[in-house]
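Exam revision sheet. Question 4 asks you to relate a sequence to its structure. Input first:
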Amino acid sequence: MDARSEPVNPTESLPAADTLAEGRPCARKRRLHVGLSGKLLLFTLAFVLLAEVMIYVPSIAVYRLNWISDRLAGARTAALVLDASPDGMVSPQLTRELLHSVGAITVALKRDNTRRLLASSDMPPEVSHHTDLRDISPITAVSEAFDTLFAGNGRIIRAVGTPPRGGGFVEIVIDETPLRKAMLQFSRNILLVSLAISALTAALVYFGLAMMFVRPMRRLTQRMIAFRESPESSPVPPEEPRRLDEIGQAEREFVAMQSQIADTLQQKNHLAALGLAVSKINHDLRNLLSSVQLISDRLAAIRDPAVQRFAPKLVVALDRAIAYCEHTLAYGRAQEPPPERRMVEVASLVRDVRDTLGLGETEQGETPDVPAIRFVESVERGLTVDADPDQLFRVLLNLCRNAGEALAARAPNDPDRDQIRVTGRREGAAVVIEVADTGPGVPERAQAHLFEPFHGSTRRGGTGLGLAIAAELMRAHGGDIKLVPGTIGATFQLIVPDRPVDLEARRMRRAHG
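Answer key, structure tokens:
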């Protein structure tokens, strides 16, 4: 077969660097990663070198001025010789020696409108640049210094300075090449010293900052990574960091957050395990309650007056228990089903709670479940509430049971002292129900998380779910539950608002009616 007709696998023509592995970017797109330590070192070197440059610029300008000033000082000496010579006559030999000592091609002195000149030849070379040291600004000195560095060798310059005494000026014409070579040598020395200082300073700053900042940040980052990979098994440091700066604050906040998240995860695991256990128990409990319901139906057929009195209450209680089990299994989640609201008589609901807890009037020979605790009802006559009766019953049952347990804990009880009071009234478009007791009240440490699961219980062995369930059911009704401060014992207030009236639906019903 012809090689051109063979099928070609498109992936074989791609270079290995372009292939993707496990969703990661290809190798050629991978960027160079520089850690915090590397960035700190680079920034330190850059700033130290910048500081050295800022030092070098004025230094090289000063070096040039000093170099030219030394030559002008020698020119002043030569000018004194000119003044001392009769009629300005200087021998050629002395002229050469004076110019050689100055390092100049010509030296001139101007005073009182007269100009005297020492020259090595009758035709001095052409001057390419002029500089006046009598009045030179720092910016001009810096610019002329760099002009000398980049001008090249062989340039002739004219420098002017102050004379030895009196007015006028002294000037020299010199070859700039020795000056440029001296400046280059000075620059090399500055560069070597700057590199040494920069390396030493950068090392000291780097190690100092690394010990003070980079190492704590790296330690904090490693702990974050370890906590992210295994939040449940990541250990919490036994002691809080002692640093008082921002890094210490970050470490303390991370330790607090780690502890809170660990507690939350532990609670979530507890909730998950508890939910699984409740689902299993609920399944079997529903079957058992169904059997009990059959027995209660048989009891209802007995003509005994006492049985006829309590059998209906038993049937109602069993129906509620079975319905609750079915709802729990149907939803299979920690969230409660939405309420099925209708108008309910509050007084009747409160009496059902009282009878369920056994706190009401008892027949002769019967003993209530919670002895010597008085149950007081104070509900407005004819008060109704727009609520789910089963869910509101559960809320009141939880609150009254908690109150009864708090009062029973200080047995022997006295009905004049140990009381549970349930009141109900309408306030505008809402019904307010209060459940109060004369017990020890809610400890301050429990009030912050009173309506959170596993936090609200103040009784040994309590699960802390009763108040959490009550709060969830009240929120489902659009209402609220709260602990009323400043009361004897504990007083919980329920607020159940009426549902908003759908005016459009009402108008449609009237139109079709």
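Marking note for examiners. The two ends are 88 Å apart (CA to CA).
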